[in-house]
Every structure is written in structure tokens, then in C-alpha cells.
Amino acid sequence: MLTGLQPVGPSAVAAAGQVYTHEGPQDFVIPHELTDSEIRATIDDYVTAARGAIEAGFDGVELHGANGYLIHQFLAPNSNQRADAWGGSPEKRIRFAVETARAVTEAIGAERVGFRLSPGNPFNDIDESDTADLEATYTALVEALAPLNLGYLHQLEAAGMRDLTYRLRKAWPATFILNPFTGRQPTGPAELELLDNGTADLLAYGALFLANPDLPARLARGGPFNTPDPATFYGGDEKGFTDYPTLEEARA
């Protein structure tokens, strides 16, 4: 959509909805279904990108297996409708993610690689509503990634997924970063308890941090919290990016 080239995917299934482009929102198009050789070439592309990042001076890379993007599309049954070695059962649907992670760790070192996942997140028209399949898929994924000794696992938690979070945390032996579901209505103590009880080693935030430049202090104090404005997330100026007040500014 941004380059004029047809996007690729595990299956020729267009997502419902729109993508943001330089010309404004555009309907998603039907992707080209990758062949076996193209899948292997795509894994090589991840390796090339990771090596380029290290050569450019970055400390590491995070494989984006979340939010409905390519790796996530291979994981989800509605976007991956293949009947070959790359689709079908949970064990086959995780293959692209695992082989990509393995190839990248071999290229730049496992300690330089993280993996982000978002089980149950419907972003970009992903449908993982089958609870049994969801649990089987992500348990298999985390158990397959664990022996690779990645630097960390980073989970974006969807609504109602706390039990799965506990399950995945138990299966993951190393650093576990959690972006906890708050409905954008955090309390502070509830989120920090996730660190105290060992559910997560680190907490990560996106939109909530955007709206609260002093978020760590607000969490420690139990708020109050500014509410993010989704209408400004993809805007073209400073509104919604640098104009949220800190606690001190709000009191002034």
C-alpha cells in the first residue's frame, strides 16, 4: 500500500478494514500467497534486516509477531489457511515464527533478539477467538522459542487473557516483558503487583506512555492518568504527541 507493491501473506485473504497511507486510509488489498521458496526467502530478509540493524549500531532487534503483521498472520487460523507444512495445525502455524527466530539468532546472537506476541489481539482483523486453539498455538510457540535463549519475550496482553499470560510466563524461562491490559484505565498498584508477584520482569506501555510522559511516577502514585486520544495517534503534527501534561504541569 505504501510502495505500490502487492503485500504478501500466508494466504490470499484480505483483512477487513483500512491501512494508513500517505494518501489517507485505504482498504486492505488481497495479499500474494507466499510459496514455500518465497517463505524461505522472507526468512532470509529478516536475517538481512537484523544484520543491518546491528551494523548500524543497534543493540538488538525485536521480531514483531504481534498486531496482525506477517508473523502473526502465520500464527492465526483465519489469516493462515494453508494446507502445507506452514499451516493447518498449531504446530505448523508456528513454524514460520520459530524458523525466523532461529535464523536471526544464528545471525546476530540470541541475546540480541527479542520476540513480541499478542495472543487474542484482533488488530488488523486477526481472529483467534477459538480459546482451545489459541492456548495450543501460543503454548507451542513459547515452548519452541524457549530453547533458542532469546533475550526476552514481550507480550501485548489482550482483554481477558490474564490466565494465558500466566501460562506463557510459566513456560518462558527468561526475561518476560508484559504490556498489561488495562483498558487504558490503569490503577498503578494493580500493574506494579505484576512485577512483585513475578508475572512479569518488566512492564511495557505504548499509548498510555504517549499520554503520560511521566508514567512511572503516575504508576507509583496510583495516578491520576491522562487518557490517550486515538484520533491523534496517526496525525501529522504535535497534537497528541508532545502536548499531554505531566503531573507538575497539570498542577501549575
From TrEMBL:
Region (Disordered): 228-252
GO function term, MF aspect, one: FMN binding
Domain NADH:flavin oxidoreductase/NADH oxidase N-terminal span(s) in chain numbering: 9-222
Coiled coil spans: none
Superkingdom as given in the UniProt entry: Bacteria
UniProt xrefs under Pfam families: Oxidored_FMN
PANTHER family: NADH OXIDOREDUCTASE-RELATED, NADPH DEHYDROGENASE 2-RELATED
Annotated protein name in UniProt: NADH:flavin oxidoreductase/NADH oxidase N-terminal domain-containing protein
Organism annotation: Streptomyces capoamus
